[in-house]
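## retry 2 of 3
previous attempt timed out at serialization; input unchanged, resubmitting
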Amino acid sequence: MRAYLAQMLSIFLIMIGLAACRADAPVSPQPTPTPPAATLSATATTARYEIVQRLRLINDGPGQPEKQNLWIALLPDDGPQQHIRSRSIQPASYQRVVDEYGNQYAEFDLSHMPQGSSQLIELRYEVEVHRQVAEFGDCIGPLPTIFLQPELHIESRNPQIMALAARLGAGHTTPCAIVRAFYDYIGDTLTYSYNGQNWGAQAAMGNMGADCTEYASLLVALSRAAGIPARYAEGLVYLTASEGGLARTAHAWAEVYLPGAGWTSIDPTLGRGIFLRDTYFGQLPPNHILVTRGRHPSTLRGASYWTHLYWPGASTTIRVQDDGWEVRLLGTTGD
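## retry succeeded, writing output
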């Protein structure tokens, strides 16, 4: 059995995209980005962006792969919040696939790539994003029985998380009040630190520091532990120069189902400061650009935004150079 496993490991290699909150750390040094040409004001209701994603595959030899595939998540049209005005994908030969969350991907077959060659993959979008504002009302009503189960990095049945959810929710009579208690606790307790890891909800309860993956995972886990449906969202956030310390471009947040409002976006990372709490609870400025939903979509194999697979791995070495995301604000309305 050990010999068989060793053989299997020798004939394939998986290279995965970097996780949210760390996807804009480039593989090689990059030039300082050009400052944004426009500024997103606090009163903007709609924003338009040009978004570019580039990956370059490089075959370092000594051979070539018999089979090679690359999957890249596609920015979606998402109800009234996000509209894809245009999309260009190069090379144009790809298959579109859909995962269990409804996320869409461009799957590229890049087999038989010669030694010493490279392949540039470029996705270019124009995206329109609208401000999200939830209407809670009395927040009383039935809740669906979906997105309640624990999963990897969302340990909603962990005794510590269940006990914390019960303690924070005590005395609150509506799901909105309970989730707000979770949100305020996360903002008051967690210490933001870009850690480059993928620790999840339970680890966020320690003293190691947390970035957007832990902030969002903990809010989702606490909500599920309280019987309130919640899901994990991953995408991009547009931040001005003065906001750069709040998060990274590659970002994650939570969506919680609340009576009367339905699926409601909540960003505990950006809302961690006391003066920003109301800005990111139940509403989002038009600076969040959705890429995928789900903590671990199967197509991405534990990665974020893209994943790469080729075999046999013993025959050659393929590097993927991720240039990160370029997000340029084109204009706003509602100022």
